[in-house]
C-alpha cells in the first residue's frame, strides 16, 4: 500500500487492476488484503491515494472516521469473512470533522465540562456523534498539552483504534492471534503522502 501511495504522491500512479478482465474476475467474490476505515472527505479516497485497484481494499468511510455499530460490524466482517490481514484507521490533514468539533468545543463550555478522561464519549453533551467522538479526542489531546490540529488528528486516529479494539472481541482476538495487524495512518493533503502512525 505504501508503494502505491509513493507512486500516487509522485504523480506516477499505475491505476492497477481496473480493467474489464479484473472486474469480471471479481464477480463471484472478493479477497481484499486490507480493510481501511477512513474519513468520508472527498479528497481522501483510499483506493486512489494508495493506487490500488478493484478488489484490493475493503473500505469503510465516515466523517472523521468515527465508529458506530455498523462500522464495527463491517470491520468484523472483513476479518471473519474476507480474512483481511491488515486493518488501517486513517485520518487526514485539514480534517473538517476535527475543525467542526473544535469549533463546537470552543463555542460551548458544557461540552468541555461534561468530559473528563475515562468517561464514555457519549456523555459529551452534543447531538452530533461526530462532535462527541472527535471532540473527546481533542479534549484528550489538550489534556496532554497538545494544541495543534495536526496533533488532534493524530490523537483521534489513536483513540479510534483504542475504541475499536476495546469494543470488539473479534478484533481483539484477531490481533492477539497474529491473524490481523492494525495500524494508524494520516494522509497529508499538502504532499499526497500517507504517514504511518505508531502508538
TrEMBL record:
Signal peptide region: none
Repeat as UniProt keyword: no
Requisite cofactors: Zn(2+)
CDD domains: beta_CA_cladeC (cd03378)
Substrates-to-products reaction catalysed: hydrogencarbonate + H(+) = CO2 + H2O
Name of protein: Carbonic anhydrase
Coiled coil spans: none
SUPFAM superfamilies recorded: beta-carbonic anhydrase, cab
Keywords, comma-separated and alphabetical: Lyase, Metal-binding, Zinc
Binding site for Zn(2+): 39, 41, 92, 95
Record bears the keyword Lyase: yes
Record-stated family: Belongs to the beta-class carbonic anhydrase family.
Species: Bifidobacterium aquikefiricola
Start-end of Basic and acidic residues biased regions: 12-26
PROSITE patterns: PROK_CO2_ANHYDRASE_1, PROK_CO2_ANHYDRASE_2
Pfam families per record: Pro_CA
Cofactor note: Binds 1 zinc ion per subunit.
Single GO term (MF): zinc ion binding
Membrane-crossing residue ranges in chain numbering: none
Lineage: Bacteria, Bacillati, Actinomycetota, Actinomycetes, Bifidobacteriales
Function: Catalyzes the reversible hydration of carbon dioxide to form bicarbonate.
Annotated spans, Disordered: 1-26
GO BP term, pick one: carbon utilization
Amino acid at each position: 500500500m505504501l508503494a502505491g501511495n509513493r507512486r500516487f504522491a509522485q504523480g506516477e500512479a499505475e491505476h492497477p487492476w481496473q480493467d474489464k478482465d479484473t472486474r469480471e474476475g471479481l464477480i463471484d467474490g472478493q479477497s481484499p488484503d486490507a480493510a481501511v476505515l477512513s474519513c468520508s472527505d472527498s479528497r481522501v479516497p483510499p483506493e486512489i491515494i494508495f493506487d490500488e485497484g478493484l478488489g484490493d481494499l475493503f473500505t469503510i468511510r465516515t466523517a472523521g472516521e468515527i465508529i458506530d455499530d455498523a462500522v464495527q460490524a463491517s470491520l468484523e466482517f472483513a476479518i471473519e469473512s474476507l480474512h483481511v490481514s491488515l486493518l488501517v484507521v486513517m485520518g487526514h490533514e485539514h480534517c473538517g470533522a476535527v475543525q467542526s468539533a473544535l469549533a463546537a468545543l470552543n463555542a460551548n463550555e458544557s461540552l468541555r465540562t461534561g468530559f473528563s478522561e475515562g468517561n464514555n464519549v457519549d456523555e459529551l453533551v452534543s447531538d452530533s456523534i461526530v462532535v462527541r467522538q472527535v471532540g473527546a479526542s481533542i479534549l484528550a489531546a489538550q489534556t496532554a498539552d497538545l494544541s495543534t490540529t495536526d496533533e488532534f488528528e493524530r490523537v483521534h486516529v489513536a483513540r479510534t483504534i483504542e475504541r475499536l479494539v476495546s469494543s470488539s472481541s473479534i478484533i481483539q482476538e484477531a490481533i492477539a492471534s497474529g491473524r490481523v495487524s492494525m495500524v494508524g495512518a494520516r494522509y497529508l493533503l499538502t504532499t499526497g503522502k500517507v504517514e504511518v502512525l505508531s502508538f
